Amino acid sequence: MTSAPPVAAAASERSTPAEVGGSRARRAGSGLGPGSPRRRGRSSNGLRRLEPYAFISPTAILMIVLMLVPIGMVIGYSFMNNVITNHNPKFVGLDNYVDVLTDERFHTALGNTLIFTLTSVGAHLVLGLVFAMLLNTPLLSNASKAVFRTIYFLPWLFTVAIVAVLWRLLLNPNGVINYVLVTLGLSDNGVEFLADPSLALAAVTFINIWAGYPFFMISLLAGLQGIPRDLYEAATVDGASRWQQFWNVTIPQLRPIIISMCLLDLIWTSQQFALIWMTTGGGPINVTEMLSTFTYKLAFSRYEFSMASTSAVIVLLLSMILAVFYVRHQRARD
């Protein structure tokens, strides 16, 4: 057999314009073209999924750089012998934790922190609730409530540095409080509130109570104003007294707010540093030494950075326990 001429074969392999247009239309209809709507939809969906990560990426990067990396470094330092001052630190395992947990100064700091924290939180709650109920009473006019709210809220407006300097001046042997005590004949030469070992812890606790109760007061006042009046009217119809209404209506309605604020205040107060450092510095004779000042002195007074890292990790673990309770309570509340 003879083969077809080359020109005829090429002509037979060519497609007519109608056939070419039909094939292009079929490809476009099937979504197989490079600029097809299906492909554009897939790419836009992929970009849309990445948008949330793009928005949170700056914050995530800052948290990683400023929080996770330092925390990881501190945890690593806690398992080494003295770092920074030692050019070749070695892994010592849990030796630093044993040394810190058996240190008498750590026990003193832990006990002082517990007393300082629990007393402050309890007083914050009681004073905040009392002042909130006073500001919520219908016996006062709106103008009087505004004035008292401003006065009661003033301590919360001051920074820790201002609070510390203010009370150091007031409690100074030549300060206003000692002047009043001497004038009234209650003291001969004044009282060293911040230098007397028997009074220093009570003095700094009082200062912290004074500076922190407005947070509870404002939050509880908002909670009181959100309680429906129908509950009190129903309790009055049932013959409940004022105390019974407070205990069976007010407290149950405020319980979620009270628990949340107490957990937050426990975390904040247990880590209080600036107020203690600027008033007593942990003295005299370690009677106001807290876990925060104990850790600071280990690092920047004794230059034992590994021991300071170990103490910081212990404080972190204690704070995380409180944080877990707070998160669980918030989830249960939601």
From TrEMBL:
Entries under InterPro entries matching the protein: MetI-like (IPR000515), MetI-like_sf (IPR035906)
UniProt xrefs under CDD domains: TM_PBP2
Xref: SUPFAM superfamilies: MetI-like
Segments crossing the lipid bilayer: 53-80, 114-135, 147-170, 199-222, 263-285, 305-327
Family: Belongs to the binding-protein-dependent transport system permease family.
A GO cellular-component term linked to this record: plasma membrane
Membrane topology annotation: Multi-pass membrane protein
Annotated region (Disordered), positions in chain: 1-45
Any one Pfam family match given in the protein's UniProt record, by short name: BPD_transp_1
Keyword list, A-Z: Cell membrane, Membrane, Transmembrane, Transmembrane helix, Transport
An annotated GO BP: transmembrane transport
Main location: membrane
The keyword Transmembrane helix is assigned to this record: yes
ABC transmembrane type-1 domain location: 110-326
Protein's cellular compartments: Cell membrane
Lineage: Bacteria, Bacillati, Actinomycetota, Actinomycetes, Micrococcales
Protein name: Sugar ABC transporter permease
Keyword Transmembrane among UniProt keywords: yes
